[in-house]
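Batch manifest, entry 17 of 40.
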Amino acid sequence: MPNPRAGGAGRRPTMKEVAALAGVGIKTVSRVVNGEPMVTEATAQRVWDAVERLDYHLDQRAGSLRRSDGATSSIALLVSDVANPFAGELHRGVEDVARARGVAVLASSLDEDPEREAEVIRDSIRRHVDGIILDTVSHDPATLSRVLGLGVPTVLVDRALPGVDTDCVTSDTRAAAARATRHLLDGGHRRLALLTERLIVPTAVERRDGFLDALGEGGLSRDDAVPATGLTGAAAAEEALSLMLRTADPPTAVFSAQNLVTEGALHALWRAGAQHEVAHVGFDDIPLADLLDPALTVVRQDPRRMGRLAAERLFRRLEGPLAPERLVVPTELVVRGSGEIPPPA
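Output type: structure tokens
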């Protein structure tokens, strides 16, 4: 069976080869990758499958063939959920930079779905955005690299994947999770609950690892913790912690590793009347956290700054070639009271 990467090592596949693999004409391939109408969805999908299989790269310099000035003055911001306050702050940071340059920001939700992410990236390319800022939901570096290789400058923000060769702006998320966990351990707690998203999410893995780092430093093992991973939203987190609190050996402290997960944990603690008995540190600040009783201790990120840095990096990349760079934005442990509740005597 012939190799679909028919060009041989070192040679980039051609549009003709994409057309042959997809079973269509060259003009059809051109229409699909340039976002032109008159192509059925099934045909377009065959073309995009061939593009990915061959690792075909769109020629950015050919943009002038489809855009009179080679640019559309628009960029895409792709986040897990535009309704999440973290994404809103990220969006504002990107928009502040883009508006100063007269560039529109087109935001889309990925819904923590890697397949949707790949499709939304393709759709952004069809719309001829000049660049993409991506809060990736993928857990497969190879797949993400193939999609990002389609030819549009891209900066990852918030979440990084090892092996993906592109710019990235993140927080010091693993170290921050370890710092939050260490704070609870220093308060005397030895029975800690970890609440986190699905472990296909890169930041969920990093925060889980930071939590375990701190346990190891404190002479504890993962068997001493009460983990609940794979939580999708506040309701799932509330249910998980409620079950933990009803066990014979409940946790005396909770580390909730994402803002929506934190909201669910708060509901569980208040419904159980345990908000003054179980220590709680959340990752990401949430609205009105300082007005709770006790006020919520959190790891505070700076998503607006992350968005600004990501946008500035993208516009620099649009101006000319750059070596990929990772920028790390520091976090802050904000002590307010909930994380300082002592364990039972």
